[in-house]
Amino acid sequence: MNPGRETIVIVGTGFSGLGMAIRLKKAGIDDFVLLEKAGEVGGTWRENHYPGAACDVPSPVYSFSFEPNPKWSRVFSPQAEILAYLKHCADKYQIRPHIRFHSEVSAASYEVKSGLWTVQIQGQSPLVCRFLILASGGLSRPSYPNIPGLKNFQGALFHTAAWRHDVPLHGQRVAVIGTGASAIQVVPEMVRVAGEVKVFQRTPAWILPKPDGLMPQRSRPGNWLLRKLLYWQFEMKALALLRPKLMRYGQKMALAFLKDEVPDPKLREKLTPDYIMGCKRILLSNDFYKAMSQPQTQLITSGIEEVTARGIRTRDGAEHELDAVICATGFQVAEASAPFPIQGRRGLVLSEVWKDGAQAYLGTTVSGFPNMFIIVGPNSGLGHNSIVFIIESQVQYILGALRTARKKGWKSLEVKAGIQKAFNERIQKRFQNTVWSREHCVSWYQTPSGKNTTIWPGFSFTFRLRTLFFDRAAYETLETAAGQEAGQAHLNPLSTR
Ligand code: NAP
Fewer CB near the terminus (10 Å): N or C of the chain? Predict the structure, then answer.
């Protein structure tokens, strides 16, 4: 292998990076390298190891279609099992020899003349490649709240995605800021160990019971059938997301659940959302409401004024003395920004191009950035089903593009600007009259101006159908200067060895 020169560079080794790498290997392409900033695979499932971390999508669908896992212990698996699954996939498909651990990408730039990307890696020599695949994850950079005084706190303060297992919380006074998907998993665990738990809520979440349980031992066909059943059951939820009127049935179920779980009407009122269900992620939990009803738990909704050396002061003037503050405040939404500085054709900078909202074609390719692919890019997120389904769809599409490029000897491929524009206009139009439209609520799915750049506003199977085949007519392509043969030589993975 030519040092510093690969055909394909993949950034990240979570579900996206590993899924891409495995499919490449299966297709007989092995001149690729994965760059991983950490020392292990797993992406978000490596980073999020807070107590209670689990998936809120059933494991038979939250896993690769080609690698069913007979070992899932529960329908909704805990984090450790998902991480173990990803490590198993890396081992089984012999992906580890392709991974460069402790290799954090700091920038990437494209050169028109050669049609090659140069990828800068912190503390290492750059890599040159023809194709750059960003698999660095939608939710990988923790977002700390912009609250005055956060740095002044003298106790332990950390984020759910950077859990400090060295901080003893037993019997302590613990605050959890936020009531999103991470918070509702961590709060019950805190209530089990801490002496006092104060939950600072800005917006209540819509919560439904989690149909969890031990995973029945099934035969292979049984597992396949279960996967299909769960997929379609979750897929049907999209109907209500797209037709808000139907959402009132979901809301009724959630309110009945809240009533059953929380006997105190005042607490119930504080936990009742005032916006349409589905606008933010619909959460599943069997223990959050119970935890909120415990005597050692307090729900605080008066708004945080500042963090002080000893705790949190709320807008009503109350001082809450604390030993630890846990920020369950979500992530900097990567779908909406470049993960690192990326310079495309003729000096175009991705973060500049995206300054009014990220956009791509099929969430995967961006005009002005040839030979670059994004997995879980703009408008490819789901509110109702497994993101692994979307990842596998994108992987299939990218594989189609790479195979075609190789066959045709292309030096570069770039989505046509007009195609990308028309695609995004259609996407934005589709948000009208859905639960995600601005009239219903504000969420991290949207830019400050209200444009939703995160969610795929439709069924996931329509995304699958759109990405089944690489649609070369949507792309401008350039052949290598020396023609098809030379292109094939360069793109043939074995030719650089
Ligand atoms: P999130 O959904 O963004 O929730 C963040 C929470 O923090 C919200 O309740 C938010 O309130 C609150 N918050 C943010 N800034 C605040 C501030 N300055 N003051 C007070 N409250 C503040 O983040 P998350 O819970 O980490 O979940 C993010 C995503 O990760 C999910 O949507 C999901 O896609 C994924 N996730 C998945 C699972 C799973 O089981 N598969 C588990 C965890 C996370 P507002 O609502 O008012 O903004």
Answer: C
